[in-house]
């Protein structure tokens, strides 16, 4: 059964387990302090917002998403009814218009995803053009609260692991999967720690 992180207490429980497992994790936690819950909504709008945010600045993404909300384009039917012209008017590029329409046509059962295992969630979401593995993992982690998901291709997580474990180079995705396997069943809490630790390490070492 998939463990769900619902409260700050769940994050603390996971972090205590990780600290008992790894002294370096405990040391990192001492530097970062309490970790954020970071739960987000789930559903079509959350994924559409994630697609819109790809490869643009936060300010641009926020502006486009605000126009989408104002136009009522946050559900499958309105997105399809708007057509290319309506989506372009909201600020979407040609590629993102295609991705938005593909997501709207995908017919994802978001209620069913709430009880699906992580692998099934990621498989379902990545079948939609425009949704990559990272986006699917982040959705499982924060929108669904899965406790044992990790974004193995995330550069900040890889760099944080390099610094924390004194590795000679930043671990690539396959190596990161091997490292993260030791943190099961709390890999999403380990991710929260490493993101927080990355910010600390950047300040200390000038990491870009």
Rough shape? Answer: elongated
- The low-confidence parts are none
Write the CATH fold name of the largest domain. Answer: Endonuclease III, domain 1
Please give the count of helices: 12
Secondary structure class reads mainly alpha
Radius of gyration: 18 Å
DSSP strand count: 0
Largest sheet: none
State the domain count: 2
Going by CATH, the architecture of the largest domain would be Orthogonal Bundle
| Superfamily (CATH H level) name of the largest domain | Hypothetical protein, domain 2
What is the N-to-C order of secondary-structure elements (H for helix, E for strand)? HHHHHHHHHHHH
The termini sit apart by: 39 Å
- What is the helix content? 55-70%
CATH class of the largest domain: Mainly Alpha
How much strand content do the residues show? under 5%
Mean pLDDT metric: 95
What's the quick description here?
The chain is mostly helical.
Write structural notes for this entry.
With 208 residues, the chain is mostly helical. The chain has 2 domains: 90 residues, Endonuclease Iii, domain 2, CATH 1.10.1670.40; 92 residues, Orthogonal Bundle (Endonuclease III, domain 1). Helices cover 64% and strands 0% of the residues. The protein is built from 12 helices and no strands. α2 crosses α12. 35% of the residues are buried.
């Amino acid at each position: 059964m998939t463990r769900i992180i619902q409260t700050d207490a769940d994050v603390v429980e996971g972090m205590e387990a990780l600290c008992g497992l790894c002294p370096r994790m405990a040391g990192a936690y001492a530097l970062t302090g309490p970790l954020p819950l970071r739960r987000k909504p789930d559903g079509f709008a959350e994924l559409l917002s994630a697609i819109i945010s790809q490869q643009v600045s936060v300010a641009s993404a926020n502006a486009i998403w605000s126009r989408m909300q104002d136009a009522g384009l946050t559900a499958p039917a309105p997105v399809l009814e708007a057509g290319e012209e309506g989506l372009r008017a909201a600020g979407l590029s040609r590629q993102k218009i295609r991705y938005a329409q593909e997501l709207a046509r995908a017919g994802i059962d978001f209620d069913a995803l709430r009880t699906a295992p992580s692998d099934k969630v990621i498989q379902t979401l990545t079948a939609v053009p425009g949704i990559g593995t990272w986006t699917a993992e982040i959705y499982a982690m924060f929108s669904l609260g899965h406790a044992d998901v990790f974004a193995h291709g995330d550069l900040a997580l890889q760099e944080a692991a390099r610094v924390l474990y004194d590795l000679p180079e930043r671990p690539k995705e396959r190596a990161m999967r091997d490292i993260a396997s030791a943190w099961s069943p709390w890999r999403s809490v380990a991710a929260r720690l490493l993101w927080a630790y990355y910010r600390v390490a950047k300040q200390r070492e000038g990491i870009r």
